[in-house]
Specification:
It is built from 12 helices and 7 strands. With 266 residues, it is of the alpha/beta class. Among the domains are: 86 residues, Alpha-Beta Complex (Conserved hypothetical protein from pyrococcus furiosus pfu- 392566-001, ParB domain); 51 residues; 45 residues, no CATH class. It is globular. The N and C termini lie far apart (47 Å).
């Protein structure tokens, strides 16, 4: 917290949710229980907000408390106003709170990390340092965005574990769905899914990527994980040519990137 941060009470109607909040799902039963507790004892822990010239105050942390307080009929909330934060710092603060509370689903964590990377052009290393996790943690979660939507839904529903998901990443879409459905229906262990994945992979013939099956978003994620920096691929299918761009923030980071790519100055 900022050294001069203090708690104040804000009218609840002046507080709005952050449209980029990582957490998208809230358990109705748990929310109702929290609302009952708040009605009885009030809000113990302040929410954290940042002033917005058009929207009043935007939540950085505490959306569940804010929702429950509305259900409880409160007209104000204890809040800490953090106008000292940059956009990047505000996004990191909200994500860290959810990660520390372990309140995010697997895909919510993956998408939250991706928004942090995209909005602020952060490398996996930079994200890891800011949220207090390892680079491997960040990379593994970002790779989950390669999963197709039906598989992501099974993961969010708790029918597949993180271990199952990491096994399915990189497989063709139809294979992902078939194996994920079977694993969820038959309650497969991760080891059994790994065996089925190896068998399915060995049966598939390798094909060169074409304009029809080249998924640039997947390729960008894979290359970003490989080099540790944000990668963007621009491709013009009509001209059959494009550009590959790798982002870096300063010359020190460029030196590290060149070293990972095997470049050695003369």
């Amino acid at each position: 917290m900022s050294a001069d941060a203090s708690v104040t009470r804000l009218p609840i109607e002046l507080i709005t949710r952050d449209r980029h909040q990582a957490r998208a799902r809230f358990d109705d039963t748990a929310l109702a229980e929290l609302a009952h507790s708040i009605a009885e004892s009030g809000v113990i822990q302040p929410v954290v907000v940042r002033g917005d010239s058009q929207r009043g105050y935007v939540l950085l942390a505490g959306e569940r408390r804010w929702r429950a307080a509305q259900q409880a009929g409160l007209d104000s909330l204890p809040a800490i106003v953090r106008n000292d934060l940059s956009d990047e710092q505000a996004a990191v603060l909200g994500l860290i709170e959810n990660l520390q509370r372990e309140s995010l689903g697997v895909m919510e964590t993956a998408h939250g990390l991706a928004r942090l990377a995209d909005a602020h052009t952060l490398t996996h290393d930079a994200i890891a340092r800011r949220i207090g996790k390892s680079r491997v943690y960040v990379t593994n979660y970002l790779r989950l965005r390669q999963l197709v939507e039906p598989v992501q839904a099974l993961l969010d529903a708790g029918q597949l574990s993180l271990g199952h998901a990491k096994t399915l990443v990189g497989l063709p879409n139809t294979t992902q769905i078939e194996l994920a459905d079977t694993a969820a229906r038959d309650n497969w262990s991760v080891r059994r899914l790994e065996k089925a994945t190896r068998r399915a992979t060995s049966e598939q013939s390798t094909t060169e990527p074409t304009d029809n099956n080249l998924d640039l978003s997947v390729l960008e994620d894979q290359l970003s994980a490989l080099v540790g920096n944000a990668v963007h691929v621009d491709y013009n299918p009509d001209q059959r040519r494009g550009q590959l761009r790798i982002a870096f923030h300063d010359l020190d980071e460029l030196d590290g990137l060149l070293d990972r790519l095997g470049h050695r100055p003369d």
